Amino acid sequence: MKHLISAGDLSRDEALLILDTAEELARVSERSIKKLPTLRGRTVVNLFFEDSTRTRISFEAAAKRLSADVINFSAKGSSVSKGESLKDTALTLQAMGADAVVIRHPASGAPHRLANWVRGSVLNAGDGTHEHPTQALLDAFSMRQRLGRLEGLKVAIVGDILHSRVARSNVLLLATLGAEVTLVAPPTLLPVSVERWPCQVSYDLDAVLPKADVVMMLRVQLERMNAAYFPSAREYSRRYGLDRDRFAKLHDDAIVMHPGPMNRGMEISAEVADSPRSTIVEQVGNGVTVRMAALYLLIGGENQ
Known about the structure:
Layout: H1 12-29, E1 43-48, H2 53-65, E2 69-74, H3 86-96, E3 100-105, H4 110-117, E4 121-127, H5 133-147, E5 154-158, H6 165-176, E6 180-184, E7 200-202, H7 205-208, E8 214-217, H8 233-240, H9 244-247, E9 255-257, H10 270-273, H11 280-299
Helix pairs in contact: 1-5, 1-11, 2-11, 3-4, 5-6, 5-11
């Protein structure tokens, strides 16, 4: 494994290796001294062309806990905003000797292009509406931690599938790991290519909930909603929001997830988000250990 660009690139064994490594690293996180010397002398560059406080901080914490040197490169206010191309930026990083580049970019496919221009490993922290593989890994890790397995789990992913790189990465990874995924959304919020995805599709949340082991609510990306994807926020919430009554339809062991940030009261009610069966806070902590595992497996080897 040289790069982590798409969840679909991971074999079952590779995905499980990342999850198992994260489990070992999670034990370290429980110690009073959380730092490991594993990546001492390595340089990790966070290259963010799009704002994402949580993902950037999570990758930064992961690299620092492994004792790597971290360079944060925000594209706002840098040469990029003066028109420097991704390729020029890549050559600059190459000259700095970056062992790993974590990239978030508004253009789908940017991490793939970057991987052709740098010698280090490239980790995709979100590209356009395409993919977000470490989010899918931390979600799978959170499911396995709570429910003890991934094989055969019934996972419902609900909401704005069209604009969601989290949904695409989760579908690909969970299919590889043997879970059964159903996407639930209004037809206007499903991508055209969805029939080629390894999952089922439903427009009826109430029919799907009683069978689900995991319900993952996606943020309604209001900033991308320039077209009329649904009649109104209230109507969306009425049909596709997870409130107390819908929550009551879940079986007793089912869990609720959300990649954040949440629109409380829109796709998820506050009491559901804060209930003991919600993994939303855990997902953030698990994000650090899963990203530690990915960095360690990509650049921690002796052959660097």
